[in-house]
Design a protein that fits this description.
Layout lengths: L1 E6 L5 E7 L2 E4 L1 H4 L6 H6 L11 E4 L4 E3 L8 E5 L3 H7 L8 E5 L4 E2 L5 E3 L6 E2 L2 E7 L15 E8 L2 E2 H4 L15 E9 H4 L6 E6 L2 E7 L7 H11 L7 E3 L21 E6 L3 E9 L2
């Protein structure tokens, strides 16, 4: 099943399921009990959405990140060998974890915003994992019991701000600089995630491509490591890292400029599409 969060023209927000070119607005009936998709997941009530709600044309609403306000957005740096090599650093002994904030992300088909403060705007296509069940000290062999599904992620990065200090946060937190979507797809519908392929296209040209099985730290290892530090909650998002081919480490760099279209596709999951605009 595919689950979306969305906004009507009048600003009212809801959530539901995707069926071909339509959305079923389950939130119209359930918001009194579950105000958003995150609360549905927290309650273990995701199956209640199946077949529920009136039909909407897919393009008639504004898609939001599937979980608009997760408790945590945790991103993994340096998690594909070819990206580690292009950056020119040693393979990390432990996962490199940093945070993003909900305001830094937009949904599918919403514009990505290149900020006034920097022109070194880069793309990072990624697979994101969404947590479905609370857990702490989760063994890696049990990690997928805590995964409800997957979505596509663009960890849009301002490379100059990213290297101001040894903390990635400034370059990863600009307003509307990253994206997530188009939907959350349930784990059972995807099947074996390590058999899927991640591809990033800029204006239709393939710039990144890698199998999910190429992750340096696999999904189970990431969940085990992170949950050692902090309790994972339903709706938490873990962006698992980007492969080689990002624009900022090329010569000359391939920076995102207004008008460029970025597609992040994960086979079996979906395609996240955004066009770049300048900050007003």
């Amino acid at each position: 099943m595919k689950y979306v969060s969305f906004e009507y023209e009048d600003g009212d927000r809801s959530y539901g399921t995707v069926h071909d070119n339509t959305i079923l607005d389950a939130g119209a009936q359930l918001k009194g009990v579950y105000p958003d998709l995150r609360s549905v997941i927290e309650a273990g009530a995701i199956k209640e959405l199946a077949g529920l709600g009136s039909k909407l044309v897919f393009d008639s609403v504004k898609l939001l990140p599937p979980i608009p306000y997760p408790d945590k957005i945790l991103c993994i740096g340096l998690n594909y060998l070819d990206h580690i090599e292009e950056v020119g650093v040693a393979v990390p002994e432990y996962p490199a974890v940093f945070t993003r904030y909900p305001s830094s992300l937009v949904g599918h088909d919403a514009p990505l915003v290149r900020p006034k403060a920097s022109k070194a705007y880069d793309f990072e296509g990624e697979l994101a994992v969404v947590i479905g069940k609370t857990g702490r000290h989760i063994p890696k062999e049990n990690a997928f019991d805590h995964v409800i599904g997957y979505t596509c992620f663009n960890d849009g990065s301002l490379r100059d701000f990213q290297v101001h200090t040894n903390q990635f946060w400034p370059g990863k937190s600009f307003q509307s600089s990253g994206s997530m979507g188009p939907w959350l797809i349930s784990r059972d519908e995807v099947g074996e995630i390590t058999k899927q392929t991640l591809t990033t296209r800029i204006n239709g040209n393939v710039e990144q491509e890698a199998g999910i099985d190429s992750l340096t730290f696999g999904i189970g290892e990431l969940i085990a490591y992170i949950s050692t530090v902090i309790e994972l909650l339903p709706g938490d998002v873990i962006a698992t890292g980007t492969p080689g081919g990002v624009g900022g480490f090329r010569s000359p760099p391939l920076h995102l400029i207004p008008g460029m279209k970025v597609d992040v596709e994960v086979t079996g999951v979906g395609t996240l599409t955004n066009v770049v605009i300048d900050e007003i």
